[in-house]
Amino acid sequence: MKNVLILGATSDMAQAIAKKFAAEGWSLSLAALEPEMLETIAADLRIRSSAPVEAYPFNATDFESHAAFYASLKTKPDVVVAAFGYMSDQEKVRNDLADIRRTIDINFTGMATMLSVIADDFEKRGSGAIAAISSVAGDRGRQSNYIYGSAKAGLTVFLSGLRNRLARKGVHVMTVKPGFVRTKMTEGLELPGILTAEPEQVAKAVYKGLEKKRNMVYVLWMWRCIMLMIRHIPEFIFKKMGM
Q1: What are phi and psi of 98, to 5 degrees?
Q2: What CATH number belongs to 3-241?
Q3: pLDDT single digits (tens) 139-189
């Protein structure tokens, strides 16, 4: 039975992804910062799917612990889905140096250090797949979310380089850009319905994308077109748009 390791497994998107893999007959290794919530999720999955599920404590910002965490896994994964992230209010984060660091450490540095450990193992094994949740916010810097967006931009470039490095080693790397998703993190925000995905749609896109070895997945196709247009707006016009 193949195993998937889901990092940040307590998020709404990660829970939907876990359910999808369990339904497809995979065993699961779930990792997150909140141990009680994580064990509740793991117990529910065991009951609903009869899938073997292990739960592990994981701290994305405890960079020095990442190698030991990976070594502690009872089953080494065939696929890793990195779904942890953090988004603060732009008005708050730009005036809070600690929050700026938290945003970058979780969304970029933690991803880069953990996935580097996993990439080394997969490269030695000559197999495996990595999917990580980035964001359309990283496609172009905008005043409304440039700190979060810059961290996600860094992640997108990191994944692109990792994909290039591992392409001839039998290891696949996929970047996932969900766009707006209806989750606890976006609760209270006015989201445009046609551009907003449900966590289950993200889960299906991730699973299908890995099956088809996609390099980049926009969960809703419209986002690919929208961000293509936004990236090509001349800077002198973009500055006047107030996005």
Answers
A1: -65, -35
A2: 3.40.50.720
A3: 998 888 899 999 999 999 999 999 999 999 999 999 999 988 877 666 666
Amino acid at 185: M
> What amino acid is encoded at 137 in this protein?
A
Strand locations in the chain (E): 3-7, 27-32, 53-57, 79-82, 129-133, 172-177, 180-181, 196-197, 216-218
- Here the tokens at position 135 are 């964001």
Structure tokens of 237? 């016009």
Here the tokens at position 231 are 């990236």
Q: Which position has the token pair 């551009």? A: 195
Nearest one of 198, 185, 195 to 145, comparing CA atoms: 185
Q: Where do the structural domains in the chain lie, given as residue ranges? A: 3-241
Confidence bin at 190 (pLDDT 50/70/90): low
